Amino acid sequence: MRKIALHKVLSFRSRVVIIILGLVIGLSSLWFANNMARQLRDKEQNEVSIWAEAFRELGVDPGNPLLISIISTRNTIPFILTDGSLQIKSSNLIPEHILNHPDLLREKIDKMAHTNPHMKIETLSNDVLYLFYDESRLLKTLVYFPYIQLLVILVFVIFGYITFRSTKQDEQNRVWIGLAKETAHQLGTPTSSLLGWLEYLRTQEVDPAAIEEMNKDLIRLTKVVDRFSKIGAATPLTEGVLNEMVGGSVIYFRTRVPRNVTISYNGLAMERQRAMVNEALFEWVIENLLKNAMDALSGVGTIDVHLSSDANWIYVDVKDSGKGIAKGNFKRIFEPGFTTKTRGWGLGLSLSKRIIEGYHGGKIFVLESEIDKGTTIRIALKRLYS
Q1: Residue after which a domain boundary falls, among 185, 211, 233
Q2: How do strand 119-122 and strand 88-92 relate by DSSP bridges?
Q3: In angstroms, rounded to a whole number, what is the distance separating the alpha carbons of residues 274 and 243?
Q4: CATH number (domain holding residue 309)
Q5: What integer pLDDT is reported at residue 316 of this predicted model?
Q6: Is residue 154 one of the residues assigned to a domain?
Q7: What is the pLDDT of residue 72?
Q8: Do 228 and 239 sit in the same domain of this protein?
Q9: CA angle 265–323–315, rounded 5-degree value
Q10: Does residue 142 lie within any of the structural domains?
């Protein structure tokens, strides 16, 4: 127990360390990229200041070789140079369709002014110019890159987590399948032996009624062994009559419930309801629901098993007058390990859900429940017409 506890502590600490390490890497990447972006922004603002000084000293003569040299060596920054009436005097990296469209040009200038404060330039010839400029493509990429990087990391983490959970779930499934098959194998030998002893008792002066009840229990034990052996194997479905399958389980339990518990069933007196089922697994589900209903009664009460149908579905309702289920637990009762009992592993309803929904393509859910008044659990299977 101490080793298991220590393993859990180490596993928890490992996850915490990985999470902290991931946060440190992410924050470091953000800081590094933001620091580089700040330095590049300062550099671009300095280059724009040099442009402004060049325009102030040299004017806007497009043929001036010195002005051409200054602009061409720093041509990664989009800018628009206008006079006081916003008439364009010079530009860089601005598409022609924007320059030739007044509304688009005004919108572009407003965006530039919002990104960076414009510069007012008073030339030596007493002209007033306005310089609007944007961030370079490199700077924009650098600003958004760490967020893209974090998004990519997050996507990989999510996929990694899903893969890990899937692998872990597959491993758990293999363990349960192996345990079930080993259980079936271990039960096979004593079950065969009991069949032999039962035949021996038939030759002795033993009450035949008692032998018959023992035979019923042994048949049921054989079915249990068969069910365990089927876990993890292909599950063929065949056409079956639900009236008889449900009725067989009800009849078996009627002689084995406490004296103050009664079980009613309407299915044997109604039209035959057909569905595609695996008989052994479907009966297992019905027995699970009946046992849960008996546990909820605590020795006193009623269980009503009701069969009904509509145009597309057959419904099997198992209703008890027991302690009921809180509304918040309607879905949780089908989760592996969840139980309100003092004994048991909380696997019965989880297996029932897997059998009905995973193997039979049906539904199983809490139809209604009220504390201290009882619970109704419904199975729905697709109906077949003969």
Answers
A1: 233
A2: unpaired
A3: 8
A4: 3.30.565.10
A5: 96
A6: no
A7: 63
A8: no
A9: 35
A10: no
Residue 150 placed within a domain? no
328: its two tokens: 């918040």
Per-residue model confidence (pLDDT) at position 345 = 53
Structural contact between residues 362 and 355, judged by C-beta atoms closer than 8 angstroms: no
In which domain, by residue range, is 197 found?
A: 161-233
Tell me if 81 sits within 8 A of 55, measured CB to CB.
yes
Question: Has residue 309 been placed in a domain?
Answer: yes
How does the average pLDDT of the chain come out, rounded? 81
Q: Are 318 and 293 in contact (CB under 8 A)?
A: yes
Q: For the chain, what is the domain count?
A: 3
d(CA 283, CA 249): 7
- Which positions of the chain have pLDDT values less than 50? 1-10
Q: Quick one: pLDDT at residue 313?
A: 94
**Hey, how many other C-beta atoms are within 10 angstroms of the C-beta on 10?**
10
* CA separation for the pair 114, 51 (Å, rounded): 20
Beta strands in the chain, from DSSP E residues, in sequence order: 79-83, 88-92, 119-122, 128-133, 238-241, 261-265, 274-277, 301-309, 313-320, 363-370, 374-382
Residue 251 and residue 333 in contact, taking contact as beta carbons nearer than 8 Å: no
Same domain flag for 125 and 214: no
**Which segments of 123-259 are extended strands (E)?**
128-133, 238-241
